């Protein structure tokens, strides 16, 4: 699992058509990438592990959870990126929404729409952006 956590003043997510999806203020955007190998344990264990990690990094602030398979890109010798290690929708979809549900038990958690083309507008409050392998 790869997470990119970015501190934001505001984040607004809309569909490509312009239809509003969700927004947060004063919180963190968390991009989530899941690999096929991440399903070696039970889904529930992985969700708990990811939720604990996100809670630790974001504290009590709001969270915008966004699925991002491109975090799994592998590059070899200037060729096009390969996404073969990214988990497919049958694994990623239940994980993503299970993680959102778990986080919502503790704090306001919004999200984008899984496997949809979204427009994401963020106002960063600082250069606090970090990537984590879990």
UniProtKB/TrEMBL annotation:
Reactions listed under catalytic activity: a D-aminoacyl-tRNA + H2O = a tRNA + a D-alpha-amino acid + H(+); glycyl-tRNA(Ala) + H2O = tRNA(Ala) + glycine + H(+)
Enzyme class: hydrolase
Molecular function via GO: D-tyrosyl-tRNA(Tyr) deacylase activity
Record-level GO cellular component terms: cytoplasm
InterPro entries: Daa-tRNA_deacyls_DTD, DTD-like_sf
Organism in which the protein naturally occurs: Enterospora canceri
Protein family membership: Belongs to the DTD family.
Superkingdom per UniProt: Eukaryota
EC id: 3.1.1.96
Database matches in SUPFAM superfamilies: DTD-like (SSF69500)
Protein name in UniProt: D-aminoacyl-tRNA deacylase
